[in-house]
Amino acid sequence: MTVLIIAEYNNNQLESSTISTINAAKLIENDIHLMICGSNLKNLILNIHKLDTVSKIIIIENDNYFYISAETMTKEILNIYKKYEYILFASTSFGKDIAPRLAALLDVSPISNVIDIKSPNIFLRQIYSGKFLIEVEINEPIKILTICTSSFSSHINYDNDNIFLEYLNHKFEPYPYKNLINKSIVSNEKNFSNSNIIVSGGYGIGSAENFNNLIQKLAKKLNGAAGASKAAVDAGYADNNLQIGQTGKTVSPDIYIAIGISGAIQHIVGMKQSKIIIAINQDPEANIFKIADYGMIGDLFEIIPLIIEKI
């Protein structure tokens, strides 16, 4: 039984979601292959060529793959899928785009949002926005899974001297559409994947100015990243790329500080795997306190400036 993991990367490093997926795969099988598609992969390969746990890295490099579509990625997987019994994706927008396409073409049922692997064919997954857990047994010839990465470690070593690099060259066949605009978001702020502390603001923060002066400032003081609830993003207080929750990012930092966040299930499902949750809210009945390890009831506009001042 060999596992194939479809990698995600950024700035010549693997995304933490891919590392978590590798750690999940160890619960299935020790023979793990990593597939990387893209352009200008030399520096990435230099950085990960001793990746622990993985026995083979499959590299598909093409100048046309700087922005690779889900359709093209699916086609590349179809070129090699017969060697594998398991194909794993991180449960990100990237993975959620490709996994169902691949499953439909292979006529198998995918399993999404896996949070634990009980055995090679029994998986625990979230349903209804994380309100319930269900144990699923699957006997498909090829098992396609998306992994809820906050449930698995994002740490891995780079001391593997026995990894095999396999370069594949497939003919590029473009789909009948093209990208008109490719826009990268450039920010000097820390992102979620490399932050042990996340300071997140909700609708109670009141304005974009308050978000910058309180949430962003506290995050910088703590050498962490700033996040936001959907309500704060919808109100225009924070950028879309900062949204945490069911329709945003899923995070699992060491410390998650929720400020002015009521605790709607759509937000909780994206951060409840955090090791320590600290909630600050003036409403003692706010749902966020039900999952918080530490809570402070009070006016955030009085509390946060004092915290910033004392740090």
From TrEMBL:
GO terms for biological process: fatty acid beta-oxidation using acyl-CoA dehydrogenase. The electron transfer flavoprotein serves as a specific electron acceptor for other dehydrogenases. It transfers the electrons to the main respiratory chain via ETF-ubiquinone oxidoreductase (ETF dehydrogenase). Residues 3-189 form the Electron transfer flavoprotein alpha/beta-subunit N-terminal domain. PANTHER family: ELECTRON TRANSFER FLAVOPROTEIN ALPHA, ELECTRON TRANSFER FLAVOPROTEIN SUBUNIT ALPHA, MITOCHONDRIAL. One of its GO terms (molecular function) is electron transfer activity. Binds 1 FAD per dimer. It comes from Candidatus Kinetoplastidibacterium kentomonadis. Pfam families: ETF, ETF_alpha. Belongs to the ETF alpha-subunit/FixB family. Keywords: Electron transport, FAD, Flavoprotein, Transport. FAD binds at residues 243-247, 260-267, 281. InterPro entries: DHS-like_NAD/FAD-binding_dom, ETF_a/b_N, ETF_a/FixB, ETF_alpha_N, ETF_asu_C, ETF_asu_C_CS, Rossmann-like_a/b/a_fold. It comes from the Bacteria. SUPFAM superfamilies: Adenine nucleotide alpha hydrolases-like (SSF52402), DHS-like NAD/FAD-binding domain (SSF52467). Its cofactor is FAD. This is Electron transfer flavoprotein subunit alpha.
